[in-house]
Each structure stands twice: as C-alpha cells, then as structure tokens.
Amino acid sequence: MDELIDILDADGNMTRKTAMKSEAHKNGWFHQTVHIWFYTSDSKVLLQQRGKEKDVYPLLWDVSVAGHIGAGEDILESAIREIQEEIGLTTTPPDLDKIGIFKSIQNHSIALKDYEFHHTFISKLNTPFSCLQKQESEVEALKLISINQFSEEIKEISKYGYVPHNQSYYETIFSKIFENLL
Predict the structure, then answer these.
(1) Which residues sit opposite 60 in a β-bridge?
(2) What kind and span of H or E run contains 148?
C-alpha cells in the first residue's frame, strides 16, 4: 500500500518534505519505520513471516511487527497502529519500550532502495499466541521461537530464511530482551 511519508536527511533529521512511499523507495530517500519485537516470559520471540506479495523479502521471517510511519504521524501512535493492523493486538504506549533507532540502507534493485531509520521497540507479549490475528495481506504466518534458538539461527540468516538485518541490530534486540527477562 502506498502512503504519504516524511522524508529525512542521511542523519535522520526531518527535511519538512513528504513523498509517497513508492517515490521514496524509487529515489532512495530516507524515511522512518517502526519495528516492534514481542517476547514472552518463557524466553520466546514472536516472528512474522512476510507476505508472499511483499516487494522486499517475501516469505522470509522478520520482526514481530513493522511498518512505515505516516507523514506527520506520532512514532508511538504508528507503532500501536501497526501492531493492531498486523497481529490484531491492542497496546498502549506504556507497553512499548523503545530501545533505539537503527539506520538501514538496502539497495534491492535500481528501482527499489530502502533507506530507513527503524524506531525499534520491545514489548512483552501477555496475550496468548492463539489470540493473535495476522493481517492476511501483509503477514503469511506467525510463530514463537526460543530466543536462544533464534540467536543461533540468525548466525546463518539465509539458511533459516530470515530477513538480513545488520548483525549488530539483532544483537541489540537479543541483549535488550534478555535484560527485560532478568
């Protein structure tokens, strides 16, 4: 789905310009996204398998919930909206723990350049897995995996079918989740 988004400079500062998401991807303009990683009290992480119709990394396993921040949209409101849309879960700002902003540059093709700043959150999943409702158009499947297994499998990203985020990004996610489990 195309949507109007804010354009950032290479340092993550607002430029006061907006563009359609497709235009930003075509031209390699920086923009904002939200990433929300859900974990359980028994040390599991919720993963989503990206929809088969996605332009980027179809059918690969990725962050629990992710999406673009609309033009002028509050970051927390965007995260809450994406969570509701993608997994049918109602959350509030206190449920989300922001752990950082990660710069990502992915040149998928001449016509698709994903230059993003991921506003990244972790959140404890207190709802039973069986109550989650995946968004059919965006999410192929959901699964819970032990964080230990996930941290091992991520060392061989392509073998296990994960989106190839930067290794330091994944390490930060694991570290912050482990801190919250203690």
Answers:
(1) none
(2) helix 147-153
